[in-house]
Design a protein that fits this description.
By secondary structure, the protein is mainly beta. The protein is 0% helix and 52% strand. It is elongated, with a radius of gyration of 14 Å.
């Protein structure tokens, strides 16, 4: 398989990241965890895995890809330990990933 050139801008995410965040339903609580980004099939897709060290926040996994009909945009298919599935849309412009 070959790399998807439209995912190239997300290459800066590759690796394991320490995360710090908050959740609106847990006011005043700081959430710590990690996120990992790895290539699938030599860069055809991007795999995202997340873990938060808080038992009430689920671990999740997602696959990111693109659609030729939407330049500078893509989709993320997400699933977590609660059996929740979501489809998210993303765009990239310069170094801004939304």
């Amino acid at each position: 398989m070959q790399a998807n050139p439209r995912l190239k801008a997300l290459a800066v995410l590759i690796g394991e990241w320490t995360t710090i965040g908050a959740h609106p339903m847990m006011p005043g609580k700081t959430l710590h965890g990690r996120a990992t980004f790895t290539w699938v099939e030599s860069g055809a897709f991007l795999l995202f895995q997340s873990h938060i060290d808080e038992p009430d926040i689920p671990d999740g996994i997602a696959i990111l890809g693109t659609d030729d009909a939407k330049p500078d945009a893509g989709a993320m298919l997400y699933f977590d330990v609660r059996n929740v599935s979501r489809e998210y849309r993303w765009t990239i412009s310069g170094n801004l990933w939304t």
